């Protein structure tokens, strides 16, 4: 199609700017250096994607942007200040240790898997004070000889008679006193847990008193290990290119997107050795601006979340310090990336719980950054006015039902196969009615559509538009007669038999064509008159372009077309699962972000979600409640996704399904029982009576029973009533199979 031809043509004009084929992804954590590179990216972020969509008439042909000059400054630079590239280099050199799935790896400090035994503060301070007083008392008794002179026996026994006069003996004596005091301090310190008192209160107090509040800058690694020196390029012999990139990084001309994009291009060049020379030449000419995204953008105009393109993560919150969270996760950052989104994510929460603002927007922003780095393709679908991201952050914005939309949506998914087009279109039209109406069977609907789409394409070289297809489904004699005449003139006997079979079914009981025509009538409205036009494919967007690093947003119709919006969302989901799994090149991570998947989940879409993991693709779906999904599909839907999120405010019915899918775990419980102590001798009885008069309670003794029982990780009642506002319970599973338990996440931090 035209979109693909335009992309390929622009890619051929660039030196070594093709998309690498290894499929490895990256991310970012802190804002890069504010250089002219970002200014250049912001100025170009609003332009349409020249390589992924048909260029506008006034748009110039894409070209490699020149290396940005130094940013203008009103004042002279401070010679004593940090160098321009210091923030970017500090971000690049920050360690990212291995962490559990869903943990923010940037500067992560692993915690022990189990919570250490923590003594209560009152007991700890009391024991430390008693140990200190005991140590002081014992030393006083020894020093004043109240315990005799036995403790001095080692000093006199191991010193010669000639040393017992003069300064030598005095020095030895005070050394012995110091050694004895150190032994006493060590013994009573261990007994009173003084080191733990220091770690819990002393060290933080000293840090607050003496620390300036800033963390020391990370120590720069050796040149051969410094990522800012591009060691992989140097190992391959591209020293000149590595020197140019390192110089741009130090000068503040490189940001995290540039680093990820060039690293991706280098991986592609190493996969095809004949392109190494072209890659090196491009880097030497353009530096940090080399191998650009076809749109020319090098950053997003606005960032609202913390990203780490080096670890391919976006931070969405912090694990709460809650007893229900595993000790190793408490206080750690929570993040998502392609490694987790590749198993798909389902988020359920009522309106106002933060699904769009605190989950969809950060994830979508991260995927757009990865697309600029040549590592991902993203399609965002939401209602008009949902404000998922500004128009400047996308290459293609399809505004269905709005006259000002530059792009259109292909109802047939960009395929030339009538059977494939019929299957996808049938899923979009009647997929939600499967099992509720006898004639709404997906296979019967696909067969009926294929009997019309195949002959029409053979006769006209294209698929029918919405009014034309509706007319054929209604069985209009004029439309069927005209199609038959063209097929007869062309000698298409096989397709004539398809058309005859369709005509024989027309009007019979159980015929699915009237239902398809009624559903298609929702799109045959004046508001959609300029859309879904197959006669002019120049402005039509198709999901077949997922092999390119595209950023696409599809705005569903506004109020008054709710049923049409749900039908189009279902159609886009069906097209995405079909096109993502059918890609020849799966090196890019493809992701569909569907804000509000109400009525979009069908039996076929659930099977499609399961196929995405092996196709290097995933989907993020949000729901107000699981009641928006047919009851028979709620369990399979939760089982088909690897990441699940229950936000605050879910109902107990929804919570019961999450609790069931998260399962149970073995926990240790302590049951404390108070029993009254019965005294038998007169003295003990009198003491008990006195204690009862003073305290008002009988004398009791406690018995503790420790048991290991199996309990739900999160019960339905806890999910419905114990998740604070702005929080969510999140469980994740990586593409490799590693899983993390459900964790209570503060989405506001």
From TrEMBL:
Origin: domain of life: Bacteria
UniProtKB keywords: Membrane, Transmembrane, Transmembrane helix
Keyword Cell cycle: no
Biased composition (Low complexity): 28-50
Biased composition, class Basic and acidic residues, residue ranges: 1-25
Chain intervals for the UniProt region annotation (Disordered): 1-91
Comp. bias regions, Pro residues: 51-71
InterPro entries per the UniProt record, alphabetical: P-loop_NTPase
Entry's transmembrane regions: 124-146, 166-189
Protein's name in the database: ATP-binding protein
Organism: Streptomyces luteireticuli
UniProt lineage: Bacteria, Bacillati, Actinomycetota, Actinomycetes, Kitasatosporales
